[in-house]
Write a structure and sequence with these properties.
Three copies of one chain form a homotrimer. Chain A is α/β, with parallel strands linked by helices. The first copy, chain A, is built from 13 helices and eight strands. In chain A, strands 1, 2, 3, 4, 5, 6, 7 and 8 form an eight-stranded mixed beta sheet that branches. Chains in contact: A-B, A-C, B-C. At the A-B interface, helix 5, helix 7 and helix 8 of A face helix 5, helix 9, helix 10 and helix 12 of B.
Chain lengths: 284, 284, 284
């Protein structure tokens, strides 16, 4: 828990009783590691229990990264130590499922890269607004011989239909703000200079509304649109199994040789780089 | 039943045996009240039983309004007197569910504001075409501490995905033609000068087709896309319950003080005005 | 089986062990007939069994046509002779359902008309990319008093929502590349000059990835997004029944008088021409 990735944290800022902001601040890359699990758990617990809160915005303090993939340098025992959550899901998917189901309205304000865990957190939020110029969304996992584990196979087809969801998941490529908007990966992409004001105004508007009307309306939407937890269980199991296979280990090793987990081109253009691994490995 | 809102009516015009037009003509605002329930009931009954009809277009004769919210000046006993409909739903959601399920193809031609009941009627139609410049769609209810009751929590996520549906429902704001098209709230937005010709040509095309092929194809689409009535029951119950709560009564009172139910800025820019109530009430 | 439509064939080209191309080459119109059923059956069987294959692209060698409607000149006994497939569905919907469910990633590269069977094949593929200038998609059947039979009532609403699916199916009109992209009928429309390179690069990218990660991710997407076969059974039955009715026979006869099944305006602008049949027949 003492490596450089964990100097950072997930910070909660209370704008008002009704309006919270959660800022992802794990420099230099906003890589999500085991140290961040209890931080996010505490925040989700608060969102579930504080009856004054109506809206929460997730944003980033790290240039270029909203939140990216899991920390592959973390010791496996550090990641495995967390108990099964209240939903019966493992810690990470448990928190994401509870965030979606909470009465509070959750909004992802995406500037920079939202990849892997970052995309999954955004998808677990109720709404997503993206910087038109600076957002990059992706599920990169298949490019590293991994199966995504935090819900995207359950959530993406419900947002954008099977064809576009398969393109995002099996293409494993970077998706910019305009394409994310076209596909419905995000609600809208907003010019970067206007994103903060837009999201803040929207959140203040929600915060001015009646909490019970919000909660009941959301609950009725969720009846037909929220994936059941049982659909996410096999995703997480498939992710863990894929992580242990030689194919993933070989591709992750190559990525590390090229600069994975360090500031630079591999992390910034991860979609491009996973597309080069196969030829390097003479696999195809 | 004797107030000014009910001088108007919902008029049925028979263009041909196969092609009907239903014109919403309740000046000055196309507010839907209890007097309009039997008018719409009669029309829906005819659409269900007249085996010559293939297509029906809903449009408006009132400048600026396709159809807006329910009449909050109507006496509660006037609204409550209607028996449960054939589906087991209350009168308004019953008619909307039956319209969706009828063999006839229903098209909403939206010019002006489609808010509350107006949005719900449009969503119950099979298709929606909007004036690019003059359409305004919204579910304004949460902004008045109400829960929408006529089906939008069941219908919107199926059209546009959970994230955009939550934005429409919890944001309670006005949605213009372009955004409605991007989100799939409408099929397409059409330049205002072309909307009438476009819809009329499309309706005449449908009217020229074989009634049985239309009906069977629609029925097979509905198998996987139409919400079950059971999902709409709790919406209506939640709407009625919310209407009786002090939070909604307080916000409606403020809206009335500002000009609700009268021609003017509150009715024309309802999305803006519900966003100002919270600060007035010092609620957030 | 000896008519001119069947000089052509569906050709399989192996670009690499992992990457196949299936080229629809049934000049002059890419009309799909009974002779093509065993050809497609052989290809789908290979896609299911060859464990080296990761991706297959369907394209056309016929100018102006990706793949169009079924061959209405074929003898009914030629079409009816094929046994029920492994899924329990009839031969054509059986192959389409198996293609969707195969581990291999299937991509339709649509240049020219994808109508009827052609649209249904494209919809059964995992992804669809269309030429912005040259793609034309449609389900034309209702325009000829037919009910579509190969899955579009099950697949279209899941891709684009009920309203747009009903417009496509009941309007029976030609949909160009831009509208197909807006509606989600295709993943994206691509400028024609870039389509081949785009699809080829995407397919090579997929081919460079790990086969098991692809297959497991796709299987998890399919859990919530693929229609059950049971939903397609009644479509095929309704298609066959509609084909036997006088309304369809009369409209097909008119289409044949005007040039159906021959190169020319009827086949090229089928959406327009089915829209003229009703007035000719004095039906509406």
């Amino acid at each position: 828990m003492s490596d450089a990735h964990n100097d950072g944290q997930i910070r909660l800022v209370r704008i008002s009783n009704a309006y919270l902001r959660v800022t992802l601040d794990i420099p230099p890359l906003n890589i999500f590691g085991p140290a961040n699990i209890p931080q996010l758990e505490e925040i989700v617990g608060l969102l579930e229990s504080d009856e004054r809160v109506k809206v929460v915005v997730f944003d980033s303090a790290v240039e270029g990264f909203f939140l990216t993939h899991y920390d592959f340098l973390a010791k496996p025992e550090e990641s495995a130590k967390f108990p099964v959550g209240r939903t019966g899901l493992r810690a990470l998917p448990d928190m994401l499922a509870r965030l979606s189901r909470a009465s509070v309205v959750s909004i992802a304000s995406i500037r920079g890269r939202a990849t892997g865990v970052g995309s999954e957190l955004a998808l677990a939020c109720d709404m997503r607004f993206a910087s038109r110029e600076k957002a990059v969304l992706s599920q990169w996992e298949v490019g590293a011989a991994l199966v995504p584990g935090g819900g995207p196979m359950a959530r993406l087809p419900r947002l954008m239909g099977r064809g576009r969801a398969l393109e995002v998941l099996l293409g494993a490529d970077d998706i910019n703000g305009d394409l994310a908007e076209l596909y419905g990966y995000v609600n809208r992409s907003i010019p970067d200079s206007q994103l903060d004001d837009f999201v803040d105004s929207f959140a203040r508007r929600i915060a001015s509304f009646d909490r019970r009307a919000i909660a009941e309306t959301k609950r009725l939407v969720d009846l037909n649109s929220l994936p059941p937890d049982a659909e996410i269980v096999p995703e997480w199991d498939a992710f863990i199994a894929s992580l242990g296979r030689p194919a993933a280990q070989a591709r992750l090793r190559l990525l590390f040789e090229q600069g994975f987990h360090k500031p630079g081109d591999v992390e910034s253009r991860l979609g491009y780089h996973v597309g080069t691994l196969g030829s390097t490995m003479d696999i195809s």
